[in-house]
Specification:
20% of the residues lie in helices and 15% in strands. It is α+β, with helices and mostly antiparallel strands. It has one domain.
């Protein structure tokens, strides 16, 4: 299970959608999710050790699938 934090723009690559507070989880998958409001609420590590951002819907889905820790459970 990968770590997660309340969204922190400083964890993300400058100029990226994630650094601008947008949901990179849905953007990078090219998947339209009606539940995605576009605003990031969580920062989480991806499979390559980089940081991605996610909206509330992405957070719920990733925690449910056991891919990231629930907020408040990480370091």
């Amino acid at each position: 299970m990968k770590p997660s934090h309340v969204f922190d723009a400083d964890l993300h690559e400058p100029g990226s959608a994630a650094a601008e507070g947008l949901c990179s989880y849905h953007a990078r998958r090219g998947v339209r999710d009606e539940a995605c409001q576009g605003d990031a609420v969580v920062s989480f590590q991806d499979d390559f050790g980089g940081w991605q951002s996610g909206c509330a819907a992405a957070l719920e889905k990733l925690v449910e699938k056991g891919e990231i820790e629930p907020l408040g459970q990480g370091a």
